[in-house]
Design a protein that fits this description.
single chain, alpha/beta, 6-stranded mixed beta sheet, globular
Length: 201
């Protein structure tokens, strides 16, 4: 799903938030100048990179097992990209600064931290919130019939589309502030516990 920017049901594409092509080329150059940032370009099906930090290769591939290393971005169909996932060994504060720099330079994009050393870049009208909205419209589901769970800033856009917005105890503080509920951590399988209780009742 590339963080809500590409949704497929069977062979039907339900939602696709393609990034602005000219700005995408500009942000690619910006990312190249960031120290030790592994940038992965995603089109919803495939993922590509010109370089990844070998010290974190196994970790990166655990998320992007189909990653293709290319010599140049010219080999990628950049007009089909829906998300750039970026991994950095920097601190969370530095990662958030990277994201801030991108959104200030390119207002057509949103850039948010996504936990575990990652920050994501996608179309300003994309993200997980756009996916929730697209599914609600397609299946006639109201916000008061919707529950979302999150732990990072890339989950924040979902909150406004769901009455039952739930932050995990290990969530980013800003996400906790805007969510209506808080439960245990991901290590406690808190989401599964809540879903099982809802099914039972």
């Amino acid at each position: 799903g590339d963080n809500g920017n590409y949704i497929v049901k069977k062979n039907e594409v339900l939602h696709s938030a393609v990034m602005n092509y000219p700005d995408l080329l500009g942000v690619a150059k910006l990312l190249e100048n960031m120290n030790n940032v592994s940038s992965i370009y995603c089109d919803g099906i495939n993922s590509y990179s010109t370089w990844i930090n070998r010290d974190y290769e196994d970790y990166i591939l655990s998320y992007y097992g189909n990653l293709q290393i290319v010599d140049s971005l010219d080999e990628i169909k950049m007009d089909e990209i829906v998300k750039i996932a970026n991994h950095s060994p920097a601190s969370l504060t530095e990662i958030k600064e990277h994201a801030k720099q991108i959104t200030e330079t390119y207002p057509s994009f949103d850039a948010v931290s996504s936990g575990g050393g990652w920050f994501d870049i996608f179309d300003v009208n994309g993200g997980k919130g756009s996916a929730i909205q697209a599914l609600q419209e397609k299946y006639n589901v109201k916000p008061e019939e919707t529950m979302v769970f999150g732990d990072s800033q890339n989950d924040a856009s979902m909150v406004e589309h769901a009455k039952y917005s739930v932050a995990l105890s290990n969530a980013d503080d800003k996400l906790k502030e805007i969510s209506n509920y808080e439960i245990g951590s991901n290590e406690e399988q808190a989401v599964l516990d809540i879903l099982e209780k809802i099914i039972e009742t």
